[in-house]
Structures are given as C-alpha cells and as structure tokens.
Amino acid sequence: MSIKTEEISSLIKKQLEGYQDDLAAEEVGTVTYIGDGIARATGLENAMANELLQFSNGSYGMALNLETNDVGIIILGDFDEIREGDQVKRTGRIMEVPVGDAMIGRVVNSLGQPVDGLGAIKTDKTRPIEFKAPGVMQRKSVSEPLQTGLKAIDALVPIGRGQRELIIGDRKTGKTSIAIDTILNQKDQNMICVYVAIGQKDSTVRAQVETLKKYGAMDYTIVLTAGPSEPAPMLYIAPYAGAAMGEEFMYNGKHVLIVYDDLSKQATSYRELSLLLRRPPGREAYPGDIFYTHSRLLERAAKLSDKLGGGSMTALPVIETQAGDISAYIPTNVISITDGQIFLQSDLFYAGTRPAIDAGASVSRVGGDAQVKAMKKVAGTLRLDLASFRELEAFTQFGSDLDAATQAKLNRGRRTVEVLKQPVHKPLPVEKQVIILYALTHGFLDPIPIEDIGRFQDELFDFFDSNAADLLKQIKDTGDLPDTDKLDAQIKAFAGGFQTSKQLAAAKG
Ligand SMILES: Nc1ncnc2c1ncn2[C@@H]1O[C@H](COP(=O)(O)OP(=O)(O)OP(=O)(O)O)[C@@H](O)[C@H]1O
Ligand SMILES: [Mg+2]
C-alpha cells in the first residue's frame, strides 16, 4: 500500500491548523510596567482592542492601546498584587457585562457585579460594552414623547424617546435632581431606566437609590455606580457598560431611559489613564480621542426602525461646568453631539427659581415633533415669551414709568416664572401641566398675587380632580385640549372661589 505524499502533507496541514488555534487562545504575555490602574505587557501580539485579559492573580484587564511592541491595559479590579514580570493571558473574549431582566432593581458596578448585598444576579445573557451604534437605515425619527414630569422641561424643551438631551450646569444646580425626577416620572410608562453614577460619593448614590425605592422606581431601574475610590478604568467604562445594559432592552423592542451622571468625571478618568498610558495629551491635556469617546457612546442612543422592533434608548448625559462656562472643551464637544441641552444657571438656582433652567440657552432640537398636541397649544410661545421677559426685566430696572402693555408683559412673565417652579420629587402628569399652563397663557393667573401662584396651582389641581376629572382624562387619552369652553368654565368656577392670602388673613383677623 502506497501513501501519496499530498495526502500526508494535507493531513499534517490539517493537524497544524487545529494546533495553531489552540495556541492563539493560550497566548500569554508578560507585564513590563504597572501603574495606577494600568499596565503594559509584551508578548500579546494578537490581542484585540477591548479584549478581556487575565492576570496571574486572577484580576481582569482590558486591552486599550495596541502598539507594535506592547499592549496598554486598563486593570478592572485589584492591581495591588500585580507585579512587573507577572503573566497576563488572553481570553479571546471582548469585554462584556451581564444584561437582562435580572439586572432590574439592582445596584451594580461597572462589571455588572452586584454591590447592593442582595446576592448574585441570575442571568446568562451578556453584551459587549462597546457596540456599534445603529446606522442611518436602522433608525427612525423621534416621534413619541418622553415625559419628564417637570413643567419647565416638558413645556419648553420637550424630549422625545430616542433623543439625547444634555443636562449641563455648574455644581449644585440641580442636575441630578432633574435626572432622578425624570426616572420617577417613568412609573407605568413602559420604560426601563438605567442610572449610571460616575465618580459620585457612595453616600450620595445610596441616598439616590433610597429615593428611587421610596417612589417605587427601582421596579424598573438599574443603578450602575463607579465610585471615586475605584480605579480610573472603572469610571471610564461605566457609561459603556450601562449602555450595554440598556441596549439589551432597546434591541428587544422596549423603551429605555439612560442617565450618565456625569460625563465630566468620566472624561477626567479617561484623561488620567490616557496620561498614564503615555498617550499624547491634547487640549486641556485630554487625549486626542476624547471627542470620539463621547460621540460613540451617545450615538448608541436611538429610536429604532419598526423592522428592528421600534425600541428606543433616550440618553440624558450630564456635564458639570465651571463658572457657567459652556465653551470649555468637554462641554462644547458634548453639546455638539447631543440633540439639545438643558442649561442650569446657579444665579437662578440661588434666586429660588428651581429647577434653574435658563430658557434662553436651553433647546431641544428634535423633541418638538414628539410633544403632545395639547402641550404644544398651551406652551407654543412660552420659551420666547420667557426670554423676552428676561430682557425686558433687565431693561426696565432703570425706568419707573412703564406703559400698560409693558407692565402687562412683565406681569405675565413673573407669573410664568412662578408657574414653572417645581419642588424636587414632585413630577406632574402631562394633563395637569396642560391645565396650569392653559390657565397661565389664557390670563387666569394675571389677577393672582405672585406669592399665591403656587397655592393657586395646587388647589386648582385638587378642584379638577374632584370636579372635572373627565377633562383631565380627556387630555390624557387624546393628548389634545378638550372643549375650551368647558375648560374655561371650570377654571373660572375655581378662580371665583379662590382666596388670596391677604383675604384669608383678613378673614381670620
Ligand atoms: N427643583 C428644586 N427645588 C428645590 N430644591 C432643589 C431643586 N432641585 C434641586 N434642589 C436641591 O438642590 C441641591 C442640589 O441638587 P442636585 O444634587 O440635583 O444638584 P447637582 O447639580 O446634581 O449637584 P452636584 O454638582 O453635586 O452633582 C439638592 O439638595 C436638591 O435637593
Ligand atoms: Mg449631581
């Protein structure tokens, strides 16, 4: 029996092919440098970008820089025991996090591991933390509203499902409160929320989770936290991990709201680890790809086409400014890649106008198409009116003799500012927002003293609840204004019986 040489060589070739595959998966490198949360290693020639690597002490890392001689690695976990000369192994897997229904109601870290002490999360589904954003053909334009429950936002800068709306302002101007209240308002709205806390104190996050629990919002919310004491890589990957958790629902036809609180701290951590990895620093010492870091993240928010199930992911990134400077590097970058911004002013905040939204500098570029009809009718010109009121107010500070028209404008403006105020954790359903804004724009509030506007509003809502629930329901169901004669009649009936605080005091004394 003769054996053909070709047969032998083909057999050997076959064997070798299999052998090489095994070898690739077992590729092991050596740590050459170890720093704060980062490492470099040689011998990992075939490592992929974002590949999960394992150090000999069991810790994981992610390949970030792929260079000719070595690989720059961000370490996800304990790096105290890693030494130069240690081995680091390829896993052949791209960095992933657990996803799925089991994550809802839990507080997790950037790796998707629970930190709430409620035991293991039982899910076998995972998603890569970096995922290509849906393309043009996979998207649909934003058309359904996302109600924040905040009058000043739903009326002035409406947000649609699938939109990216930036919340920007100095420290302590109420940025987080807006995000949390928006999550509270998603109760029974068929929405899943992901709150990503980046670099926030553990005590702060704890308080936020308590708030969410108190209002029943943890039933549909995932909280992901990367605290300030964690290594920089955990803060850097937090928003991507959160996005992966949200995407799981979006690609299954559901609606998701994701909050990144905040991307300034994420950018700082990225700068830190980029400098440690010796990437060339650019403007404000941020690495050259800081813009891409945020744009590829925010592009993942989308309204998907019907063919893909019609799910959506709405993103509310938060940016902290210094002294209201929105022209700094990171703020301008993020402003340019979002569909609008809600700009919070500390002056307004300290003057008691809360939420401290600057109507002139805030916009929503796509949400108008998604706004409910009734709201559009009552709030149509509110934003411009408010901006011109602010101008008029500044101007008339110097003069005393005002003509009647200017006086009326100022009167209305002051009442508008008052109506748009709203305390924390008190989101309002859209039908009630419509009622009070209708009353405002149709002059029913003009004779009411400023200090009584808040009470007028609350009592008006009570009145509608008990006397005109059908009108409220009609707005809710149709999204349009009911018969305005009926509406006028009800508001008049209420206003007729309303007592100003002076009247009340007089009656008492
Ligand atoms: N509409 C509001 N009415 C009354 N108080 C408010 C309102 N919004 C926020 N606050 C209060 O202002 C404080 C700061 O709010 P918040 O934490 O939301 O601001 P922030 O901009 O996220 O702050 P930080 O810079 O610390 O992240 C909180 O005590 C909050 O309760
Ligand atoms: Mg905050």
UniProtKB/TrEMBL annotation:
<dbReference type="GO" id="GO:0046933">
    <property type="term" value="F:proton-transporting ATP synthase activity, rotational mechanism"/>
</dbReference>
<keyword id="KW-0066">ATP synthesis</keyword>
<keyword id="KW-1003">Cell membrane</keyword>
<feature type="site" description="Required for activity">
    <location>
        <position position="362"/>
    </location>
</feature>
<feature type="binding site">
    <location>
        <begin position="169"/>
        <end position="176"/>
    </location>
    <ligand>
        <name>ATP</name>
    </ligand>
</feature>
<dbReference type="InterPro" id="IPR005294">
    <property type="entry name" value="ATP_synth_F1_asu"/>
</dbReference>
<feature type="domain" description="ATPase F1/V1/A1 complex alpha/beta subunit nucleotide-binding">
    <location>
        <begin position="149"/>
        <end position="364"/>
    </location>
</feature>
<keyword id="KW-0813">Transport</keyword>
<dbReference type="InterPro" id="IPR000194">
    <property type="entry name" value="ATPase_F1/V1/A1_a/bsu_nucl-bd"/>
</dbReference>
<dbReference type="InterPro" id="IPR023366">
    <property type="entry name" value="ATP_synth_asu-like_sf"/>
</dbReference>
<dbReference type="InterPro" id="IPR033732">
    <property type="entry name" value="ATP_synth_F1_a_nt-bd_dom"/>
</dbReference>
<dbReference type="InterPro" id="IPR000793">
    <property type="entry name" value="ATP_synth_asu_C"/>
</dbReference>
<keyword id="KW-0067">ATP-binding</keyword>
<keyword id="KW-1278">Translocase</keyword>
<keyword id="KW-0406">Ion transport</keyword>
<keyword id="KW-0472">Membrane</keyword>
<dbReference type="Pfam" id="PF00306">
    <property type="entry name" value="ATP-synt_ab_C"/>
</dbReference>
<dbReference type="InterPro" id="IPR004100">
    <property type="entry name" value="ATPase_F1/V1/A1_a/bsu_N"/>
</dbReference>
<dbReference type="GO" id="GO:0045259">
    <property type="term" value="C:proton-transporting ATP synthase complex"/>
</dbReference>
<feature type="domain" description="ATPase F1/V1/A1 complex alpha/beta subunit N-terminal">
    <location>
        <begin position="26"/>
        <end position="92"/>
    </location>
</feature>
<keyword id="KW-0139">CF(1)</keyword>
<dbReference type="InterPro" id="IPR020003">
    <property type="entry name" value="ATPase_a/bsu_AS"/>
</dbReference>
<feature type="domain" description="ATP synthase alpha subunit C-terminal">
    <location>
        <begin position="371"/>
        <end position="491"/>
    </location>
</feature>
<comment type="function">
    <text>Produces ATP from ADP in the presence of a proton gradient across the membrane. The alpha chain is a regulatory subunit.</text>
</comment>
<dbReference type="GO" id="GO:0043531">
    <property type="term" value="F:ADP binding"/>
</dbReference>
<keyword id="KW-0547">Nucleotide-binding</keyword>
<dbReference type="InterPro" id="IPR038376">
    <property type="entry name" value="ATP_synth_asu_C_sf"/>
</dbReference>
<dbReference type="GO" id="GO:0005886">
    <property type="term" value="C:plasma membrane"/>
</dbReference>
<protein>
    <recommendedName>
        <fullName>ATP synthase subunit alpha</fullName>
        <ecNumber>7.1.2.2</ecNumber>
    </recommendedName>
</protein>
<comment type="similarity">
    <text>Belongs to the ATPase alpha/beta chains family.</text>
</comment>
<dbReference type="Pfam" id="PF00006">
    <property type="entry name" value="ATP-synt_ab"/>
</dbReference>
<dbReference type="InterPro" id="IPR036121">
    <property type="entry name" value="ATPase_F1/V1/A1_a/bsu_N_sf"/>
</dbReference>
<dbReference type="InterPro" id="IPR027417">
    <property type="entry name" value="P-loop_NTPase"/>
</dbReference>
<dbReference type="GO" id="GO:0005524">
    <property type="term" value="F:ATP binding"/>
</dbReference>
<dbReference type="Pfam" id="PF02874">
    <property type="entry name" value="ATP-synt_ab_N"/>
</dbReference>
<keyword id="KW-0375">Hydrogen ion transport</keyword>
